[in-house]
Specification:
This protein is of the alpha+beta class and 109 residues long. It has one domain: Alpha-Beta Plaits, CATH 3.30.70. The chain contains 2 helices and 4 strands. It has a 4-stranded antiparallel beta sheet. It starts with a strand and ends in a 5-residue tail after the last strand. InterPro entries: Dimeric_a/b-barrel, YCII.
Length: 109
């Protein structure tokens, strides 16, 4: 089994800008998806907060719209993609949000 990281990208609304009802509804969606993934979820992750972008020429860049991460375990990339089915970040359907999946390569020597 391999570990995969999901990176969430898009113009998400910060949770502190939701009403109590909206927050509860969002958390319910995430809870349902995480429950479906079950034991394949190694790290539920977290949203990203304050951000900066530093460039190798000493300047500052424009931070991206990366919003958070989750780490799952799966047999291969196709299995990791299948675990993303029903993910709340992909529910809008307007192409503004994406979920990038990367295999975490073991660097042990």
């Amino acid at each position: 089994m391999s570990k995969f990281i999901y990176i969430y990208n898009g113009p998400a609304t910060p949770m502190d800008q939701f009403t109590e009802e909206q927050s509860a509804a969002e958390m319910a969606k995430w809870g349902a998806w995480m429950g479906k993934v079950g034991s394949a979820m190694l790290d539920g992750g977290a949203p990203f907060g304050a951000r900066a972008s530093l460039v190798d020429n000493g300047t500052s860049g424009e931070p991206s719209l990366l919003q958070g991460y989750t780490i799952v375990e799966a047999a291969d990339l196709d299995a990791a993609k299948a675990l993303a089915e029903g993910h709340p970040f992909l529910s809008e359907g307007n192409g503004r949000f994406s979920l990038e999946i990367f295999e975490l390569v073991d660097m042990a020597m």
